[in-house]
Structure to design on (233 residues):
């Protein structure tokens, strides 16, 4: 890699420096916009004791769910965990720690972490188990709880297009958590469908500036559908 060129040629290089007990922030929502090949590389590496911050944990046999197979995940910070039987089994057996976080709060934890904001107040979760033990303040007659932001040792992200400088464009709903996750990693790794030359992306269309991105790799993707619903004729 030279100058501002952030493109790497292998997944080993993309995830270089990954070790046991790290915190990884992963973009995606369900199976939409997940960095599936970076997840596969984490599985291949064999690292253990990971804390994974992501909206959910994939499904059995795909996405982040594959990291449960060899018990590589120690803790999940998620808003939804209902699509994975192995996840349920490990949770009920006490083998997996889970921190359930309201979805909007989780997104803001990532965004705030990337912006250098250590904590923020939100009304979401006040008066529920989510708010237990957290500082409460009243603003304009309403109670709010203090939530700490999140940063990770790595952030893994899926984008549609990138240039060699790491500027990113996401496609439709595959934006989901990816732009927030991209800002919150000490090392942010992005896999993309297409890499273009600098200047080919319209600056007004860039969702994440390259200053947040450390490594870019071009991948091929399966793009599974999590749940297919059809109507009979």
């Amino acid at each position: 890699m030279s100058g501002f060129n952030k493109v790497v040629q292998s997944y080993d290089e993309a995830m270089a420096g990954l070790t046991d007990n790290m915190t990884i922030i992963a973009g995606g929502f369900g199976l939409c916009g997940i960095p599936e090949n970076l997840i596969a590389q984490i599985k291949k590496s064999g690292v253990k004791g990971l804390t994974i911050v992501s909206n959910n944990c994939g499904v059995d046999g795909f996405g982040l769910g594959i990291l449960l197979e060899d018990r590589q995940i120690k803790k999940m910070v998620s808003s939804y965990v209902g699509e994975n039987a192995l996840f349920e089994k490990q949770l009920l057996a006490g083998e997996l720690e889970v921190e359930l976080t309201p979805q909007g709060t989780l997104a803001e934890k990532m965004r705030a972490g990337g912006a250098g904001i250590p904590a923020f107040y939100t009304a979401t979760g006040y008066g529920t188990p989510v708010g237990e033990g957290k500082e409460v303040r009243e603003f304009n007659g309403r109670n709010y709880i203090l939530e700490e932001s999140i940063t990770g040792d790595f952030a893994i992200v899926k984008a549609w297009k990138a240039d060699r400088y790491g500027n990113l464009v996401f496609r439709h709903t595959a934006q989901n958590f990816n732009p927030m996750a991209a800002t919150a990693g000490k090392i942010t790794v992005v896999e993309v469908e297409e890499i273009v030359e600098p200047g080919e992306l319209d600056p007004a269309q860039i969702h994440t500036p390259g200053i947040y991105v450390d490594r870019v790799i071009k991948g091929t993707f399966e793009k599974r559908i999590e749940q297919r619903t059809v109507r009979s004729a």
